[in-house]
Fold:
Amino acid sequence: MKFLSSILISCALFSSVAQASSSQAWNEQRQQMLKACLAASQFKDAHARGKPAEFDDQVGMSALLIEGVYPQKHMQQRTGTELCLYDRQHQRAFVSEWSPEAK
Structure:
């Protein structure tokens, strides 16, 4: 009985370590995505707007809205939004201007 309880305690400890490792890996992936999306953005003072949308592994993409200030003088410091698609497998970011208003 003592042996069985030792095994159960060991399993519980290892499973919590695995979950922490998994959570850490997930956070590192999100940090890589944020860094890549901000680098791909054309905005000054770019920052994430909200949380990313995570697509299924078959798609392999995450989406994140980026907000910032247009760098062109004629834009007169207006803010804008870009949609960043992040390819998790290749760790590459692609951005496009995003206007949520219907036209």
Q: What stands out?
A: Residues 3-19 have pLDDT under 50 and may be disordered. The radius of gyration is 20 Å. The longest strand covers residues 61-69. The chain has one helix and five strands.
